[in-house]
Amino acid sequence: MSSVISTEEVARIASLARLGVTDKEITAAAQTLQDVLAHFAAIQDIVVTDVPTADNMAGLTNITRADEARPENLCSAADLRAAAPDTSDNQIKVKAVFT
Amino acid sequence: MNITHRTLTELIAARTAGEAATKLVADSLAAITAWEPAIHAFREVLTEEAHVQADTCDRDQPTGRLHGIPIAIKDNILTREGHTTAASRMLENFRAPYDSTVITKLKQAGAIIIGKTNLDEFAMGASTEYSAFGPTKNPWDTTRVPGGSSGGSAAAVASGEVAAALGTDTGGSIRHPAAFCGIVGVRPTYGRVSRFGAIAYGSSLDQIGPLARTVRDAALLLEVIAGHDPHDATTSKKPVGKYVAACGSSDISSTALAKDEATVMAHERNIVGLTVGVPEEYFAEGVDENVRRTVTDAVRQLSRIGCKIKNISLPLTPAGIPVYYLLAKAEGASNLARYDALRFAPQAAEAASLLEQYTESRGRGFGAEVKRTILMGTYALAAGYVDAWYKHASRVRTLMRREFETAFANVDIIAGPTAPEVAFPFGGRADPLAMYLADILTTPASVAGLPAISLPCGFADGLPVGLQLTGKAFAEETLFALAHAYEQSQQWWKKVPELPNDAR
């Protein structure tokens, strides 16, 4: 399944991923994606009928715990706020979601 | 400048004999001062913090196995000390609010975090050329790359700045730079070491592991960091093996007697009779002729010390790169979604809306390869493509795991080169696809979740060559036993790079 990847397609993917890209980056990425996927297309010939996807690499199931706060997990709120670019009134400040 | 090049085992012995932690830290900092202008292995050296810790160590009663010993940490592993940047502008000013589990374990063992080492941005790369803060250079030849992505950790160990370091391995990021820098690097079984606090790339692939000069040192460091962790649900409850014991109780000190003694030692350590599988695909076209010859000699040596050599075939080997990259980039794109520039990371303050702020901040904060990850990964997961790319790759991954299982019914260990070439010059793999292909021999074990070790097995064109041994899941003890017996029979590890003339 090798196909031509258009610059429009790359721009659409970038916007889905909330990634700012310049026109130059879009052109370069379209070419690179096309080259790389053309190479990777070799695996399309491998027959996978009835083969399950590899969804569980650790081979573990049902890892559960009680739904309780574990204080030892938590770092201080002050440390978390310190990492944020903008804070106000002990909270992380963001732009309005609905405008 | 005299760099001592002491191994972790030697440093532990020195501490037991009463040598001060402050002396060890001073030695390490002196080596760092001498080497850093030439190699740039560290993203940040924690001089102040290390001095304070060393003073504390010298006042305390020694407790842990690494008490007072400096260790370097790849800068995508969270530490309370210093910054944790993943070599990205996105995290340039980030200070981690908590320690990774491996760091907690190192600290409990008494280790001193001497600094954070350079890497390809978010561990995406095989040369450290993708670091936002400039590349690391190979201590054997500073016109060449150290490999990657844990290139800083590998160069720091090879140069003698530290005896040991931690790295992370998604598709080869510990083993590949270990091979290029002539040291030992171990990718543990998936689930053996907690990733809590490691900045995620491909979550079904990522593992933390040791880089050191000798197999025994790597075994020791893995023993300290391995084990179940309630903070990482993918960690196994299987007991941690006796990795140091697997290396046997004594090393060979006299090189003159090395070869005969090694044969005797091999008998003592039950490696005689181990069957080593040698896949023809690991020596195929694309593997440099001198690398092939060097590794073939190493396999012959494995036979000499008592292993049975069996030629095998792993026909799915060429699928390793596509399968690995499709899955790693998809998982990477998903993991990178958290960099929204709200909770951390520099923000595009002038943005008019929240959406614009996300887009602008991410566009500025991420480098070229990380952007490729996001685009390729999002593409492979997008509606209309997900079945053909992501899910297909995941099914082929199942086939690759089965292929290894079948092979391991008849062999104990699989051997081959770690990388298809020796360290390449800067810019030598400028095309993204060419860079991906550097991982051709390390991705299969990653895809299958298996443990693998790279250790020095000689030189080609004056540069180190790595022998890669891959084992069954959770069979690290067998890997260490054989790797140690081979290492002691050849003593390649004793050769160290010289400080470049202009840096002396």
UniProtKB/TrEMBL annotation, chain A:
Function description: Allows the formation of correctly charged Asn-tRNA(Asn) or Gln-tRNA(Gln) through the transamidation of misacylated Asp-tRNA(Asn) or Glu-tRNA(Gln) in organisms which lack either or both of asparaginyl-tRNA or glutaminyl-tRNA synthetases. The reaction takes place in the presence of glutamine and ATP through an activated phospho-Asp-tRNA(Asn) or phospho-Glu-tRNA(Gln).
Cleaved signal peptide residues: none
Family matches, as SUPFAM superfamilies: Glu-tRNAGln amidotransferase C subunit
Family the UniProt entry places it in: Belongs to the GatC family.
Keyword annotations: ATP-binding, Ligase, Nucleotide-binding, Protein biosynthesis, Transferase
GO-annotated molecular function: asparaginyl-tRNA synthase (glutamine-hydrolyzing) activity; ATP binding; glutaminyl-tRNA synthase (glutamine-hydrolyzing) activity; transferase activity
Catalysed conversion reaction: L-aspartyl-tRNA(Asn) + L-glutamine + ATP + H2O = L-asparaginyl-tRNA(Asn) + L-glutamate + ADP + phosphate + 2 H(+); L-glutamyl-tRNA(Gln) + L-glutamine + ATP + H2O = L-glutaminyl-tRNA(Gln) + L-glutamate + ADP + phosphate + H(+)
Organism, as annotated: Candidatus Andersenbacteria bacterium CG10_big_fil_rev_8_21_14_0_10_54_11
Subunit structure of this chain's protein: Heterotrimer of A, B and C subunits.
Identification of the protein by name: Aspartyl/glutamyl-tRNA(Asn/Gln) amidotransferase subunit C
Domain of life: Bacteria
GO BP terms in the entry: regulation of translational fidelity; translation
Entry's EC annotation: 6.3.5.-
Automatic annotation (TrEMBL), chain B:
Residue ranges annotated for the Amidase domain, each copy included: 24-479
Oxidoreductase is among the record's keywords: no
GO molecular function: ATP binding; glutaminyl-tRNA synthase (glutamine-hydrolyzing) activity; transferase activity
Alphabetical keyword list: ATP-binding, Ligase, Nucleotide-binding, Protein biosynthesis, Transferase
Protein name as annotated: Glutamyl-tRNA(Gln) amidotransferase subunit A
Role description: Allows the formation of correctly charged Gln-tRNA(Gln) through the transamidation of misacylated Glu-tRNA(Gln) in organisms which lack glutaminyl-tRNA synthetase. The reaction takes place in the presence of glutamine and ATP through an activated gamma-phospho-Glu-tRNA(Gln).
Record-annotated active site: K74 (charge relay system), S149 (charge relay system), S173 (acyl-ester intermediate)
Organism: Candidatus Andersenbacteria bacterium CG10_big_fil_rev_8_21_14_0_10_54_11
Subunit structure, interactors included: Heterotrimer of A, B and C subunits.
Source superkingdom: Bacteria
Gene3D superfamilies with a match to the protein in the record: Amidase signature (AS) domain
EC number per UniProt: 6.3.5.7
Main enzyme class: ligase
One of the GO BP terms on file: translation
GO annotation, cellular component aspect: glutamyl-tRNA(Gln) amidotransferase complex
NCBIfam families, per the entry: gatA
Pfam family, one: Amidase
Family assignment from sequence similarity: Belongs to the amidase family. GatA subfamily.
Known catalytic reactions: L-glutamyl-tRNA(Gln) + L-glutamine + ATP + H2O = L-glutaminyl-tRNA(Gln) + L-glutamate + ADP + phosphate + H(+)
